[in-house]
Amino acid sequence: MITIAIANQKGGVGKTTTAINVATAMAAVGWRTLLVDLDPQGNASTGLGVGSAERDYTSYDLLLGESDLAQCSVATKIPNLTLVPGTVDLSGAEIELVSGDHRTQRLRNALADAPHDICFIDCPPSLGLLTLNALGAANSLLVPLQCEFFALEGLSQLLQTVEQVKGRFNPQLVIVGIVLTMYDRRNRLTEQVAEDVRETLGELVFEEVIPRNVRLSEAPSHGLPALLYDHQCAGSRAYMNLARELIGRIGAKETA
Ligand code: ADP
Ligand code: MG
Prior knowledge:
Rossmann fold; Chromosome partitioning protein ParA; P-loop_NTPase; binds magnesium ion; alpha/beta
């Protein structure tokens, strides 16, 4: 299984929107897809229409080793897409894990026998133990970057964390790509930042950019990925293209 952590310690940069829509796009083209909601806010779960009543077993139980993956998995409306929901309990996990054994390996162990082709992990906006568990479980990191003035500043801290994770417990971890989000062609600052980011990070940056698109922000309130809510909007098309580009980078699906 290919496991991709979607992380950036900044909030509101498009992690969850990217997680939901790229996961949906992958499921739509036939990949058996798992999405793990590792954010105490549970936005990915809500955005996929999985309400609190359906969150009996969550990524918290998975991390603490209290339930296995099958128990924590919830089917979504999207064929091929399974969710491990997140709840506010996760904020406690951050503390409970501090004293545990293999505290950065919990998620990796829990996902070891997953029957999926690909797994996305939607991280919280911090570089704490939850995100470290995601980076410990992942082969790859996908970083959404909002085109704003301080975008690159936060990134260097994230890249430093990646180096530490590689050195300490997950040498295989690679950055699969950086995606520019909330891109606004009419805004000169956006263009300037995008240019700077591409100059600094080169081919790490996906060619596809995600436009600022109101349909993307409306979809979660309907409990639907944008790709189902309005599959023709600019945001949905961008996420389909991003998924295509992602497949180009990770390679074709392994056939079992
Ligand atoms: P994060 O998970 O990094 O905190 P979200 O994906 O939740 O970020 O996005 C933050 C807010 O911005 C949400 O309200 C979301 O609906 C909105 N949003 C995200 N991406 C876009 C976009 N490309 N265009 C418009 N709104 C967006
Ligand atoms: Mg989020």
